[in-house]
Amino acid sequence: MNLLTLFAIGRERQPDKTAIEFRDLHGSLAAQELTFAGLHEQAQSWAGAFARMGVGKGDRVALYLCNRPEFVIAYLAALEAGAVMVPINLRYRRRELSHILGDAEPALLVTEDAQMPVLDELSVADLGPGTRVLSVDRTDAWLEGADAGRPADGAVTSPARAEEPALLMYTSGTTGTSKGAVLSHNNVLATVTGLLSAWAWEQSDVLLLPLPLFHTHGLVVGLHCALAMGATVRLRTGFDESETVDILAGGGASLFFAVPTIYTRLVDLLGQLETTPDFTAVRLFCSGSAPLPAEVHNEFEQLSGKRILERYGMTETGMNFSNPYAGPRIAGTVGTPLPGVFSRIVDAEGQDVPAGEEGELLLRGSNVFDHYWRAPEKTTESFVQDELGIRWFLTGDLARVDPETGYMTLLGRSHELIISGGLNIYPREVEEMLTTFPGIEEAAVVGEPDDVWGEAPVAYLVCSCAIDEVELERYCRSQLASFKRPRRLRFVEALPRNAMGKIQKHLLGVGG
Ligand code: MCA
Ligand code: AMP
Asked: Hey, which residues does 454 pair with through a beta bridge?
C-alpha cells in the first residue's frame, strides 16, 4: 500500500462529500469547495500534465505555495506521477530557496503568481537548469491538452511502491543550511495509521486547519489523516483568532490542530470575551511542534472547557508520542509512544538511563526516515546501532519519563535550535547571514523566552563601526525568512569564548 491507495480508501467511502473547504483569510483567492471525487479527478489531470512534461518515478516536484486547494491537487498529482514532493516554506527567501532548489534539483517548481516577485530574484543558477516553473494561477498555460497524453484506462502514472520516497522535507540543519529528510510512503503511512487509531479519527470529522501545508504538522498530521479517513478539511491560508472561535463555537469543526503560539493567542482572545463560547462540537484540540506552557494548557481549559491533547513529532519521524485521547492529558508532558514507535533515553555514553532520569531521546519505528538527501555523513551522524544491529535515530531532544505515569516530558534540545511560534531557527544560519552585513565582525544568536512566540532569536554583535539598525533589519528580511530575523540586538565588545575559542552561548542569554 502507498499513500494513494490509503487516500483511495477515504475517497471511496463517500466520493461526493466535501474533501476541502477553502477560504483565503487575508488575500484575494476565491473561496472553493472540492469533493473527494473532484479532487481526485483534478489530481489525475494534473498528473497527466506532469507526466507529459517528463516527470517520472523519483523526480522531485517542489511546491512553493500558500495553503490552497491547488497545493493538495499538485501534491496528489506528484504522487500519481511517482514523484517526490518537496514542500517549501513560503516565507523562505532567495538564500533559503536557492539552497533547497540546488540540493533537491526538482523537475518542477509549482508556485503561484503571488510568489513570482520572490522567484524573480533567483538567478538561473539558483533555480537550476532542469527546473520548470509552473504557476497554479495559470493552468491554461500548461494544463491544456493534458488529457491527450492519458492512456485509455485513465492510469496516467507510475505510483511509487511503499518503500519508495514520497516526501523530501527540508529541516533546519545544524550546519547553517537545511537538510532534506527523505520520507517513504511507509514512513508517512506509519504516522497516519498510528494517529487515526490513537485519536479515534472518524469519517464524520471536520478539521479546521490554519497551519501551513509545507510542514509536517499541517501536511501529515492534518491533511493526510483527513484524506485517509475521508474527513473534511476546512483549509485556511493562515490563522485568525476571531474566525477560529466563530467556526469552533458555531459547530463548524470537530478537530483543531495548532501550535502553542496559536493557543496563547486564543487564550488572550477568550479572556476578553464576555460570554464563553460553546465548544461542545469540538471533540479534540491538539497542540504540538513546540512546548505548550502548562499555564496556557490550564488557562485554555478554564476558558474553553476543553483539555488540549499535546503530542510530539519531528520532520524526520512524523509523530512519536501523544497524550491519550481517552485518559489523563498531563500538562507539560507529551504522553507515551504512539503505536509502532519505540523509544530509549540514553546518557552521554549511550547507556539507557533509569526512568525519571534525563537523557537524549532515541527513536525507531516504521515512521522513522531512512536518510538525509545526498548527505550520507549527516545520515551516519544521526543514527546509532544497538548490539542487535538495530538503527536508532538520535533526536537531539532531551527527555525524561515519569516513573509513575510513564509519560514523557521534553526538557530541551541538545542542539541550539530555537523554536519560534512552531517554526525552527538554527542560530548558525542567522549568524552566517549577519556577518555578511558590513561592519558586523562576529555574531552569536541565542533564543530567549518570549510570551507569544515561545522563543525569540536575539543577536549579540561585535561590530567594527556603528550599525544602522533599520538598514540591518531590511537586510535580514531580504536574506532570510522574516521569522528568523533577530528580535533584539545587543552590541558587545567581545563574545565570551572558552579556551578552545568556542563561543560560550550559555553566558549570553536573558539580559546577558
Ligand atoms: C509569523 N511571524 C513569526 C512567526 N510567524 N515570527 C516569529 N515566529 C513565527 N512562527 C511574523 C512574520 O514574519 C511577520 O513579521 C508577522 O509575524 C506576521 O506574519 P503573519 O503571517 O501574519 O503571522 P501569523 O499568521 O500570525 O502566523 C503566526 C502562526 C504561524 C500562525 C503562529 O507562525 C504558524 O502557522 N506557525 C506554525 C508553523 C508550523 O506549522 N510548524 C510546524 C513545524 P513582520 O510583520 O515583521 O514581517 S514543526 C513540525 O511539523 C513538527 C514535525 C511537529 O511536531 O509538528
Ligand atoms: P522539526 O525540526 O520542525 O521537525 O521540529 C521538531 C522539533 O520540534 C522536535 O525535535 C522538538 O524539539 C520540537 N517539538 C515538537 N513537538 C513538541 C512538543 N510537543 N513539545 C516540545 N517540543 C516539541
From this structure: 450
E runs forming strands in 341-466: 341-346, 359-365, 371-372, 383-385, 391-401, 408-413, 418-420, 423-425, 440-450, 454-463
Residue to mutate, 91, 187, 397, ligand 2, most ligand atoms under 8 Å from C-beta? 397
Question: What is the rounded average pLDDT of the residues 73-87?
Answer: 97
Report the alpha-carbon distance of residue 105 to residue 89 in Å, rounded.
16
Q: Are strands 336-337 and 318-322 parallel, antiparallel or unpaired?
A: antiparallel
Beta partners for 188? none
Ligand 1 near 319 CB (within 6 A): no
Instruction: Report angle CA 191, 361, 215 to the nearest 5 degrees.
Output: 40
Q: How confident is the model at residue 511 (pLDDT cuts 50, 70, 90)?
A: very low
Most confident of 25-29, 367-371, 444-448: 367-371
Ligand 2 centre from 320 Cα, in Å? 10
Residue 169's identity, in one-letter code, is M
At 512, the pLDDT band (50, 70, 90 cuts) reads very low
Cα(412) to ligand 2 centroid in Å equals 10
Residue 448 φ then ψ, to 5°: -120, 150
Which phi and psi (to 5°) does residue 163 adopt?
Answer: -85, 0
What is the percent of the chain with per-residue pLDDT over 90, rounded to a whole number?
85
pLDDT in tens, 468-510: 999 999 999 999 999 999 999 999 999 988 766 678 888 886 5
Ligand 1 pocket member 261 (CB < 6 A):
yes
Which candidate, 165, 210, 169, 173, places its Cα nearest to that of 62? Answer: 169
Catalogue all structural domains in the chain, each as residue range(s) with its CATH number: 3-233 (3.40.50.12780), 417-507 (3.30.300.30)
Question: Ligand 1 pocket check: which of 215, 287, 480 to mutate, most ligand atoms within 8 Å of Cβ?
Answer: 215
User: Is the pLDDT reported for residue 310 higher than 70?
Assistant: yes
CA atoms within 13 A on the CB side of 319: 33
Q: Is the CB of 291 under 6 A from ligand 1?
A: no
Predicted pLDDT of residue 139: 95
According to DSSP, the residues that pair with 184 across neighbouring strands are 165
3-state secondary structure 178-234: CEEEEEEHHHHHHHHHHHHHHCCCCCCCEEEECCCCCCHHHHHHHHHHHHHHCCEEE
Whether residue 4 is predicted with pLDDT greater than 50 in this model: the reply is: yes
